[in-house]
Design brief:
Blueprint (H helix, E strand, L loop, with lengths): L2 E7 L6 H9 L7 E6 L6 H12 L3 E5 L5 H11 L4 E5 L4 E2 L3 H11 L5 E9 L5 E5 H5 L2 H8 L18 E3 H6 L12 H11 L3 E12 L18 H8 L8 H21 L5 H16 L1 H27 L1
Parallel strand pairs: 1-2, 1-4, 2-3, 6-9
Antiparallel strand pairs: 4-8, 5-9, 6-7, 6-8
């Protein structure tokens, strides 16, 4: 069985060495490391090349012109040739037995195509932090839903984090996720939705990586996408979706719900929403029915009231 590592990098020189050293130290060695650099302006690319040679890693390094996180991640996964693809972040570190335990778990669970694990938390200098990744993202309530066969329903917010994921190549080829980039959510969230919609998502509760939390990270507990979506708003919208048996339709409903919630967050309390709300209401009516009317009317009233308050404040000054 061939193992690949897909890594996206961008100005990650500061933390790349411990990450690559942890990949090279795996008890079950990986066969290739595919790195797609998204136009770094620091010495990330040179450092990776030097370290890969030093550590004996089979490196395949590619450059891109600012594809962005989702599309660059898709490219890295597409370029992998292994049977199992491990997603790696540039700033974390793997436990030495990660590949061994993940491969063994997948071999004993052939029905699962996407596996995620727990992680210990470290700070910018590598010192341990309290709690684990599951403590923040995968609550006991969500885990209970998952274990009862409702993994998809529990995804009102993401609980499967990219650097802990391993994906079977057959699933990656059959489920390109970049086409959902306009949903405004992260690559791991899309992958989790795709897998959960087909009942092919699994997890290991044991921490198998050190997940680094620092001020410059793009995603995660301190990253700009850390919260993903407002869970209450998302759950309210998803509660209106009609039940369907077809997984493709099920997934499309979710993505449209997420697009709508993201759009609401972008336009709320802005005067432009007074124009766009009726347009978007028409677009999403077939997914949400009467409840979308109520949602849009509430937003319309809030936007109008917000604009009126701003005008009154200007007059008062």
């Amino acid at each position: 069985m061939k193992l690949s590592v897909a890594m996206c990098t961008y100005n990650g020189d500061r933390y790349i060495e411990p990450m690559l050293r942890s990949v090279a130290a795996q008890t079950l060695p990986v066969d290739e490391l595919v790195v797609c650099d998204d136009s770094s302006t620091d010495s990330t690319v040179d450092h990776i090349s030097q370290l890969a040679t030093q550590l004996g890693l089979n490196l395949r390094l590619y450059h891109s012109q600012r594809l962005g996180l989702v599309c660059n991640s898709q490219r890295a996964i597409d370029l992998c040739t292994g049977d199992i693809i491990f997603i790696a972040d540039q700033d974390d570190a793997w436990h030495a037995d990660k590949t061994t335990k993940v491969v063994a778990w997948l071999q004993s669970h052939p029905e699962v195509d996407v596996l995620f694990t727990n992680a210990t938390l470290i700070d910018g200098i590598g010192a341990p932090l309290p709690g684990t990744l599951f403590d923040h993202y995968f609550s006991p309530q969500k885990r209970a839903m998952f274990d009862s066969g409702r993994a998809f329903s529990a995804l009102s917010s993401n609980y499967a984090t990219a650097p802990t994921m391993a994906i079977r190549s057959r699933f990656a080829k059959a489920n390109p996720f970049a086409k959902y980039a306009d949903a405004g959510i992260s690559n791991d969230y899309i992958i989790a939705l795709l897998a959960a919609a087909q009942d092919r998502l699994g997890y290991i509760a044991e921490p198998l990586i050190d997940y680094r939390i620092h001020a410059s990270q793009m995603l995660g507990l301190s990253g700009k996408w850390g919260g993903y979506l407002d869970p209450v708003s998302t759950e309210d919208m998803l509660a209106t979706l009609p039940p369907v048996a077809d997984t493709a339709t099920r997934l499309e409903q979710w993505m449209n719900a997420l697009r709508f919630v993201q759009w609401r967050h972008r336009t709320k309390h802005r005067p432009t929403a007074l124009v766009y709300i009726p347009l978007y209401l028409g677009r999403y009516r077939r997914y949400y029915g009467a409840s979308a009317t109520q949602v849009a009317w509430t937003d319309l009233c809030q936007c109008a009231n917000h604009s009126w308050q701003r005008l009154k404040n200007k007059i008062a000054r």
